[in-house]
Design goal:
- The complex is a heterodimer of chains A (about 475) and B (about 475).
- Chain A has about 475 residues and is an alpha/beta fold.
- Chain A is about 35% helix and about 15% strand.
- In chain A, the strands form two sheets. An eight-stranded mixed β-sheet of chain A has the order 4-6-5-10-11-9-7-8. In chain A, strands 1-3-2 form a three-stranded mixed β-sheet, with helices on both faces.
- Chain A is globular and about 65 Å long.
- With about 475 residues, chain B is an alpha+beta fold.
- Chain B has helices at about 55-65, 160-180, 220-240, 285-290, 300-310, 315-320, 325-335, 340-355, 370-380, 385-395, 405-410, 420-430, 435-440, 445-455, 465-475, and strands at about 5-15, 70, 75, 75-80, 90-95, 100-110, 110-125, 130-135, 140, 150-155, 190-200, 210-215, 245-250, 255-260, 270-275, 280.
- The chains are: A alpha/beta (about 475), B alpha+beta (about 475).
Chain lengths: ~475, ~475
């Protein structure tokens, strides 16, 4: 079962080769075997998962089966799920049970999918290595000494290790694509507004977007079919007709144009990564795709712009964790102010505090114009660069991550080196564009991905291009432990 | 040295919407604590604000009523500060781009009209309440009010006395109720004023340092607070002290204002556009639609009463002080009643009675058709005005009675028959030669006394107007 795609699992359930309970139990056993080492899950609740599987089997026996009915999916612990603990990787929410489902969880529940458990993540999704989690670092299944990437490191590690066939994730600056790259997976960050943020715990509201992490483009398409839905409870959710993302996977891409941004393919690009990306280009060439050099002149400003805007929004979004209403509250305090101070001092980790401080600073009187306002203006320029580029090409090829996974502990003392992990992914979050990372090969036995960026709402095109690549390549088929 | 007083007012007007400004929770007042505290009100992780359109419509309505510009594009911003009754740690408000800009309200103070400029009006959510003293050593939080829509209306510093400030506040209070965007209930906090006060040497161009009197929810307190504050500031300056910009509270028991915190230690609110909400775009079509539903405004009604109906300013002002009164008055005049007599009866008699009993016009026990009949009987001279008052009192006591029956049973019908009145006049002239003599030598008082005598022997039934006319005729002829 380990290597079966979502569609193969669907066929197996439909043909009664196995039941949803059997399937779910299989993955729960995998988790029992592997999670102690990998630490991909924060919360497992066998009873709840099996109960859901029984209901799914009931549906399947009545031939009420849709694409994901009966299939277990791991949920990033940023999505509120009623009666499940939702921690967002933070001590602050270690005791938090939401009385509601996030829109994403609700959609999976309605599709009959099984919630397999809540996956580990960087605290409040702030991090690129999954080391900032209150629940401990997640290990990369390809080598347990290495990080899986972050912030959706738990989701990536769960899928890569075979503890779950697919998982939900979120991407604020690269948190889906970078772990996908580091764990040999396919991860899609949709257009901002395509997937509802309702019930998804906010980090930076104008950048946060949920998407799938899975083995293949096809699996991502099936996941996105469930996740993409208008939601009137999220004012930034965009109302548009539902698309079937699997429909055009097999369309020919002959004669299409992939843009190569010169700012990404420069001397700074790691030589090994460059070689890998050139091989990806050769593969696309064999599929009849043409290449065109394009320019994204403001993209080098993405990291500084992001580290103004994201912390600014985060500093405000995280103000609600004050010990008054829910979550952690310090036990000893003499007055209200001390209760606030101790609660937040004890409840948040270092990286979260760092970003709250930065965000508070850039919004302060006297600094707002110089930082926040200027960053917003550059953000617009970055988005304009993409709009212009897409008049010349269908999709843009870029690295996903500057390198393969690094060792646990390697970058924890150097936040800026850590921030550079997202140098190729952040500009699309600032522009609100969709982008995917898919397996591109291995460097020293560690996987790395390539990135395809599309224009707004061109997820179908991105998935089509990726699926076409995966139909002539094998990288995505490798699992940890296999000799390379 | 004489001083100029400079006053600006910020009013928080609670909009009468069924649900909160960013969630579907009810806005009903007076429920048990936290009954209306939905997940959005509680700022649960992952919950998001969704704008209530009704609140926007009401803000636009206000903008149109004060002849302001309605912003095509306005932005909700977060005002960040920590407080236990502010669950998100920020208040959603409007900062740089409010929905209403540059309007005015015209006030009348001692017969002088003055335009008070309204700088802006913006939408925001109210906070909850901290409740002290019901739990041992603990503060309770009631979030029922958290998220209730407010329109904050900010004037330019255009008022120069407590009286002008009160005139403005009353006018605004009337207007927001008139156009149906606020219930005006000041005890429940639906209409609260923050008053900025400063003083400067008379004629000086330079504004003095202001202090802001927070949360005044009664006109009487507002007047006391401003007067106290003005005197306090003048004394301070005359004693050689500087005024420190600060926020003060008015204590109704002591009648004094007292600083709560100086602005230097105040929060830096770190305003920035709320990324959870899209910019608010308002189309001309929306504006036109709301304009067409606006109806007559108090100002136009006042003009109609003074110009078309020729009522005096004082009576007209009272009638338009409240939309229900105005509509009641108009419904009476529409039945053919005389505009002036009707106004006199509403302002003089009906209001006096309602005020005595602390009732509003809705609670008037007298049926409208009996009230109309009463005024009709006065107009057609069936009864005198005095007899009318007697009947009015009886109707108030027992609303089931009928005006005409009362006139009959009490014998209040006045005598307007010349042949019946003339003999009485002759009798009085004959019996009071001295008074007649006094009248003829130019004493008007004597005339009134003679009329009184005639009324007396008619047992009050003679039509007083007719008596005085006939008497005058008789006395001047002879």
């Amino acid at each position: 079962m380990k290597d079966l795609s979502l569609n193969e699992l669907h066929q197996g359930l439909k043909n009664k080769d196995f039941s949803s309970v059997e399937l779910t139990q299989y993955y729960l056993n995998q988790i029992k075997d592997l999670n102690t080492d990998i630490n991909a899950f924060i919360t497992i609740d066998e009873e709840k998962s099996i109960q859901q599987a029984q209901q799914a089997d009931q549906l399947i026996s009545q031939n009420h089966i849709s694409e994901l009915t009966g299939i277990p999916i791991a949920q990033k612990d940023i999505f509120c799920a009623s009666s499940w603990k939702t921690t967002c990787g933070s001590k602050m929410l270690d005791n938090f049970y939401a009385p509601y489902d996030s829109k994403v969880v609700d959609l999976f529940n309605k599709s009959g999918a099984i919630n397999l458990g809540k996956t580990n993540m960087d605290e409040f999704a702030m991090g690129s290595s999954n080391e900032t989690s209150y629940y401990g670092a997640v290990k990369n299944p390809w080598n347990l000494d290495f990080v899986p990437g972050g912030s959706s490191g738990g989701s990536a590690a769960a899928v890569a290790s075979g503890m779950s066939p697919a998982a939900t994730a979120t991407d604020t600056g690269g948190s889906i694509r970078q772990p996908a790259s580091l764990c040999n997976l396919t991860g899609l960050k949709p257009t901002y507004g395509l997937v509802s943020r309702f019930g998804m715990i906010a980090f930076a509201s104008s950048l946060d977007q949920a998407g799938p992490i899975a083995k293949t483009a096809e699996d991502c398409a099936l996941m996105l079919n469930v996740m993409a839905d208008f939601d009137e409870r999220d004012s930034t959710s965009i109302k548009r007709d539902k698309e079937n993302y699997t429909q055009s996977l097999n369309a020919s891409i002959q004669g299409k144009i992939i843009g190569i941004p010169k700012e990404f393919f420069n001397d700074e690009l790691n030589d090994d990564v460059k070689i890998i990306l050139e091989k990806v280009m050769q593969a696309y060439q064999s599929l009849g795709v043409n290449f065109k050099e394009i320019s994204l002149p403001n993209s080098q400003l993405s990291i500084p712009v992001y580290y103004v805007i994201a912390p600014a929004e985060a500093s405000s979004n995280l103000s609600r964790y004050d010990g008054v209403k829910f979550g952690y509250r310090a036990s000893n305090y003499k007055d209200l102010e001390e209760m606030y101070l101790k609660t937040r001092e004890e409840g948040f980790g270092d990286e979260v505090k760092r970003r709250i401080l930065v965000g508070t600073y850039v919004l302060s009187a006297g600094y707002y114009d110089a930082y926040y306002l200027k960053a917003q203006k550059i953000r617009r320029l970055i988005a304009d660069d993409f709009t212009k580029a897409f008049t010349e090409c269908d999709l843009i090829l870029a690295p996903s991550s500057p390198s393969t996974a690094f060792k646990i502990g390697d970058k924890t003392e150097d936040p800026v080196a850590m921030y550079m992990q997202d140098m190729y992914t952040i500009s699309t979050n600032l522009a609100g564009l969709p982008a995917i990372s898919a397996p591109a090969g291995f460097i020293n036995k560690m996987p790395i991905g390539f990135q395809l960026i599309g224009n707004y709402f061109e997820e179908a095109k991105i998935l089509n291009f990726t699926h076409q690549y995966q139909s002539i390549s094998d990288w995505h088929k490798y699992s940890p432990g296999e000799v390379l | 040295m004489t001083w100029d007083i400079v006053i600006g007012i910020e009013t928080h007007v609670q909009l009468t919407t069924k649900t909160k400004i960013f969630s579907g929770a009810s806005t009903e007042f007076g429920l048990p604590a936290n009954e209306n505290a939905c997940l959005v009100s509680l700022a649960y992780p992952g919950t998001l604000p969704v704008l209530n359109k009704e609140a926007v419509m009401k803000a636009i309505k206000f903008g149109l009523a004060v002849d302001a510009q309605i912003a095509e594009y306005s932005v909700f911003a977060r005002k960040n500060y920590f407080y236990p009754d502010l669950p998100k740690g920020y208040q959603i408000s409007q900062f740089e781009l409010p929905v209403v800009n540059h309007g005015y309200l015209e006030i009348n103070n001692d017969g002088v009209n003055k335009k008070i400029r309204i700088l802006r009006a913006h939408l925001e959510e109210d906070a909850g309440k901290s409740v002290h003293g019901i739990m041992d050593n603990k503060t309770g939080i009631d979030l029922n009010r958290a998220g209730t829509p407010l329109l904050e209306i900010v004037t330019e510093p255009d008022m120069s006395s407590a009286k002008e400030a009160i005139a403005y506040a009353k006018k605004l209070h009337n207007l927001v109720q008139w156009i149906g965007i606020c219930d005006g209930n000041m005890q429940e906090g639906s209409f609260r004023c923050d008053v900025n006060v400063s003083v400067k040497p008379s004629g000086s161009d330079k504004l003095g340092t202001r202090r802001e009197i927070k949360n005044l929810n009664s006109f009487r307190y507002m007047e006391q607070a401003i007067n106290y504050e003005v005197n306090w500031q003048i004394e301070q300056i005359e004693d050689g002290h500087d005024i420190i910009q600060s926020t003060v509270l008015f204590n109704p028991d002591s009648g004094e204002t007292k600083a709560m915190r100086s602005k230097e230690e105040a929060n830096d609110y770190r305003y920035f556009p709320d990324p959870d909400l899209l910019p608010l775009k308002i189309s001309q079509t929306d504006i036109d639609l709301i304009r067409s539903s606006l109806g007559e405004l108090p100002e136009e009604c006042l003009k109609k009463l003074t110009v078309d109906y020729k009522l005096n300013e004082a009576d007209a002002s009272i009638i338009v002080s409240d939309k229900k009164t105005y509509e009641f008055y108009q419904s009476l005049v529409a039945t053919g009643l005389d505009a002036k007599i009707t106004a006199n009866w509403i302002v003089g008699n009906l209001f006096a009675k309602l005020n005595d009993h602390e009732l509003s016009i809705d609670d008037c026990p007298i049926a409208q058709e009996q009230f109309i009949l009463l005024i009709k009987r006065i107009m057609d001279q069936t009864i005198s005005n005095n007899a009318g008052k007697k009947i009015f009192d009886l109707l108030w006591e027992d609303p089931n009675q009928n005006v005409d029956t009362l006139i009959d049973t009490l014998g209040l019908k006045q005598v307007s028959d010349v042949s019946a009145i003339l003999p009485m006049i002759d009798e009085i002239i004959q019996n009071n030669p001295e008074m007649v003599e006094q009248f003829k030598s130019g004493k008007d008082k004597a005339f009134n006394a003679l009329v009184g005598q005639v009324m007396k022997i008619s047992k009050g039934k003679a039509n007083p107007g007719q008596v005085s006319e006939l008497l005058k005729e008789k006395l001047t002829k002879s």
